[in-house]
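2024-03-11 09:14:02 INFO receiving multi-entity request
2024-03-11 09:14:02 INFO entity count = three
2024-03-11 09:14:03 INFO echoing inputs for audit
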Amino acid sequence: MHDRAIAATHGLRHHFADLDQQRESATLGMWVFLVTEIMFFGGLFAAYLVYRTAHYDAWVTGSEHMDFWFGTINTVILLCSSLLVALAVHAVQVGRNKTCALYLWIASAMGVAFLVLKGFEYHAHIVEGAVPGALWKLTVPDPQAVQMFFYIYFVMTGLHALHVTIGIILLAVIGWYAAKGAYSPANHNSVHVSGLYWHFVDVVWIFLYPLLYLIAHKKA
Amino acid sequence: MATIAAPAVERENYLNTDFSVRSWLLTTDHKRIAILYLISITAMFFVGGFAATMIRLELLTPAGDLMSSDTYNKMFTIHGVVMVFFFLIPSIPATLGNFLVPMMIGARDLAFPRINLASWYLYIVGAGLMMYVVLTGGIDTGWTFYVPYSSTYSNTHVITAIVAIFLAGFSSIFTGFNFIVTIHRMRAPGLTWSRLPLFIWGHYATSVIQVLGTPVVAIALTLVALERAFHLGIFDPRLGGDPVLFQHLFWFYSHPAVYIMILPSMAVISEVVSTFSRKRVFGYIAVALASIAIAVLGFLVWAHHMFVAGISVYAALVFSLLSYFVAVPSAIKVFNWTATMYKGSVSLTTPMLYAIGFIGLFTMGGMTGLYLAALGLDVHVHDTYFVIAHFHYIMVGGAVMGYLAGIHFWWPKISGRMYPEAWGKIAAATIFIGFNLTFFPQFVLGYLGMPRRYHSYPPEFQVLNVMSSAGASILAVGYVLPLIYLLWSLRYGEVVSDNPWGATGLEWRTPSPPPTENFLETPVVTWEAYDYSTVSEVPVAR
Amino acid sequence: MWQTLPLWPVRASTLANRTDALMIFMLAVTGFFTVMIFTLIFIFAMKFRRARNPIATQIEGSNTLEAIWTLIPFGIFMVMFVWSASIYMTWAQPPPDSEEIFVVGKQWMWKFQHPEGQREIDQLHVPLGRAVRLTMISQDVIHSLFLPEFRVKQDVLPGRYTTLWFQTTKPGRYHLFCTQYCGTMHAGMIGEVVVMEPAAYQAWLSGGNAEGSLASTGQKLFQQLGCTTCHRFDTQGRGPNLVGAYGKPVLLDDGRTVTVDDNYVRESILTPGAKVVAGFKPIMPTFQGIVNEEQLLSLVAYIRSLSQPAQREPVNNRPAAPATRSR
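2024-03-11 09:21:47 INFO inference complete, emitting structure
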């Protein structure tokens, strides 16, 4: 049994008054950071919206060249990983560090699976020639606007993949700390805020998926 | 000199705990990071100032004779990029804000000290890259990076400069992010929102803009860099892109960025005017809410930079109307500062002189903003020297005067020593005179029709340009003076007490310079903001 | 002295009169408030200086005053807004019977084409008293055409036509600047506007070495490029009949409707697949890289001419317009 006083300050950084303040700061910090991230993607969504309005037909054409199943399976993978992260946060709250670690690692592995699938998908685009610029091989009406679609597609999903990569590392590291027993029901900020980050990565994909993959289906 | 009588054993403070270079470069103390920022941005200020000097020298004569047009284009671009992204945006928040926000709210540090240090390193890498750009051929796009010139036609280091700005942008986001969390979560017991100094309100509003606006310009500039690197066409009209979209994304940040520069200055002015009138700020709530209103409305006016850029007439009407809305809270602030002096006990120290200068010049800058928000007038004065004069009145007459007011006001707290008062007043007067001589003629030039970014100009504009260049030389002297006497005072300045001005903020209720943990014990606040009955009378009549 | 130190620009257009009136109003209002603030600060700093007034009187604030100095500026701002917006609306809407001139901006020169066929570089001749409408496009980066004595400017974009109009009130030679930074010789992208008495202008137009009107140049190009194969002047063509099409709305194959204007004509030549007229197949090839901006303008001029009720009167017979003509 730990001494109460020690327990109350275990993991407390010097500049905070108490653990509550530290936890609230970390949570608010992550939310503010995510707001920044939303604005970061927001610029791209604005560009997407402007050009989609201007070249709707080209957007449908572009979307037709997307592989529905790659997108859908990846959506399922990310949703499941998000669930696991939520379960991991719950596990650490009830003091089961090992379970928490396991969930985080599986979620992290699912992130890797997402990236692998995304890699195959990018490869398919390159083979098909659906890459704007020098590698462009598609013959479609209004090729300029369709290239624009793929440009925005690559920037959006590329930026998202960058965030997934950071998330994979984050979850793996936090999982490692959890396995070592670094967290307790009273002090598990890192798990909580990493979870928030992963949910954000998931939510961005939830927007990207219909915007990029489902336009053609909507029309059909 | 008073320094000779310095106590044999100095009190331990944030400056003398450890003198090693390592202790500075790896510090997580917000006060030391503030000093690191102070040194870095001062260096960048003189880089930008050098470019400004070259511009004013070239414009002495109508012909483009001092330097080639390409060199001139690089000079104004370097001046703009360095001054905006590497001096003005970090100026007050990263130095005074970094130093004072935790102290004013009774905290031991910012919420995320290591992110604060990371912010400085991002800034340094960005500034280093920018200096690399400056020294290896420069950049000639103008600080606005308008496409397709920047994405396709320019032959200079556009991508490197964009990376530099991107890094500086994230350093600014980190600062704002830290402030928001700190102000929300780390206030001392008893320090409610309505008891916060207006300095904190101003920085809170600033931080909101930094966090919301900066990522948008980061992504817009990233798209320009991608377009340039891979010949893709999101903004290139030859590939179906829309160059005006870039302007929307750019100004969505860069207009609020003006408020990133001016809100912290306003925050300083509120403190200074109150302290040297020894009187609570008139209409505290109105001034606080005006800061928030500026931050919010500031996001809704960006297209007033684009009235002649080919946007729809109806969009222009809406943005003009909203631009008038955002002028209202600025006017409220000016009236309240003025009213604060009424029946006060006014002492015209150096910070107060700068503050008064700020109010005057900001009034003129703000009023001329009304001309630019006026649709029909903007058609004439857009992209002329009228715009140049207007935003220099806001950013130099406003932001820089506020910065200097703050530096002088808190210098005793930061360094533990007083600056030389007589020299301070001389410098303040020099800057005020030099500034007006430099920039007032530019209003006239602008209405006459002299376009901005011109390397040569029609001869009838020469007299006004010579006046402006003459003013610039006075202004340059005015800026070098504080650099010299502030450095001098570090060694020879009079050692000051904890609260030399009789000010009310928590930062004045701890030693000068403060200890590493800011307060010997956590303060408990039981008084309202600017309650002068809680501090002793200061006999010093300056 | 005023030649070496000018303080106010010459007024030479109808809009300049209105702009200057607003400017004077703004100067008066803002001048008043600026002087008021400066005076108050000076008085307070003197009257309440610490030596005279050692103890400050604490005043919380005043909601009445806050309301006053919120509402009064707001009211004044609204006057400014409405006044300036009315000028802007005039600036934005060229009168329908304007003299048409086409402008191509490029690094670093201005090219002007009169419909009658006259071309000029960095110099623009316009008739006194008639509304003149410029249809402008850039060949490379964004430029901006600024005529300070007329108090008007408009950005000149690549890829899209913008327009600018003015009606001159005073003969003379005036500045013409590029105000959107466009690279190395931005400051050299200047010229002059020559405002001529209508009779002299007519003489200038008919003199020189005009090679036929702009529309006729466009007509020749239209035939050379083989446009007539599909765009026949009957209903049998594989492309829409262009006679009478300009200025009218047209239904597209995706159900949208667009007005056939300069920008739509241009887009249809360069990216024909983008907006296809209902009932036609997207078979037209792109002419990107085949026609340059000046040729595009001549095609636009030709297609415009197909919708004019009658052939324009010969320029020499055009009546001299009165200076106060307005619409």
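2024-03-11 09:21:48 INFO post-check: Helices of chain A lie at 4-9, 19-54, 56-64, 68-93, 97-128, 143-179, 189-213, 215-219.
2024-03-11 09:21:48 INFO post-check: Confidence is low (pLDDT under 50) at residues 1-7 of chain A.
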